[in-house]
Request: fold
Amino acid sequence: MEAPAAKGYEFFDHTADVGIRASAPTLAELCQAMAQGLVELIAEDSPLQPTITRRIELTAEEPSQLLWKWLDAVLLWFEADRFLPVEYHLETATETSLRGSVRGGTFDPKQHAQGREVKAITRHQLQVEPRDGVWHGQVIVDI
Reply:
């Protein structure tokens, strides 16, 4: 995997889908960068006001499954309530658990630019690994 862009994440093409790739010093920061990439895909650069707080608590058997569950939760919030996070307070992130809160706002198509329609977070080519003291991850998003 290549190093991500200055934002902490980057996009890459994958047939009819889009990939998100990120690197970060900690697993929590990797999860945050990947979620920021997902939010940008959905809402482009639309500024959302952080007026709503949501708690998150996830467990998984290994890091890639944890990342998949995290991104799937972010997508579910958007699909169910049009909620998108913009601030992340991930207190605990181990290889098998993620706990914390996010603050975000409600996406309003009258005020915000609609980006890509994200259908699902796939497990195809899903990767999360620590390498040389840095966490690296990638995911393919079905659009």
Residues 9-142 form a domain with the Archease, Possible Chaperone; Chain: A; domain 1 fold (CATH 3.55.10.10). The mean pLDDT is 92.
